[in-house]
Amino acid sequence: MATTVWTRVDSPVGELVLVGDRSGALSAVGSPDSPKGFPVDPAWERDDTVFGEAVRQLAEYFAGDRTRFALPYLPTGSEFRRRVWAALESIPYGETTTYGAVAASIGASRAAVRAVGGAIGANPLQVIRPCHRVIGADGSLTGYAGGLERKRQLLEREGAL
Questions:
Q1: What pTM was estimated for this model as a whole?
Q2: Domain spans of the chain, in order of start
Q3: Which of 48, 73, 101, 131 is the most buried (most CB within 10 A)?
Q4: Which pLDDT value is given to residue 1?
């Protein structure tokens, strides 16, 4: 069984917890102070050296010097969720889209918008996989596991608000 490791990173939008394996591949990035919380599993081992590349890229993003992440991820989620998450990665920096547009981009029916929203809400890689760029059809900020205030801050940093 592979060892799961984690570290904490300070950011302009609050503390982030990075989780993955010893190779530096990420399985999750979350905010411990978010409405849903992001607890550290006692079985995980803290290692502040493994995620150096992720920490560097996050610092570049928050400095305004990076618009896309190029990091290894551990495969998670169903085939449907992976399709939705891939669509998130194609949303350009500084732009927003809607849940309906994401559904259409993966060939899902209009009736599947709720399922797309569920997949977006289950995105385990906050900030890095930009689910914060998905907004309501009426332009409202809706549904972000890190909290709507953090979503607003991320979109403002990117110039999307």
A1: 0.92
A2: 5-62, 79-157
A3: 131
A4: 61
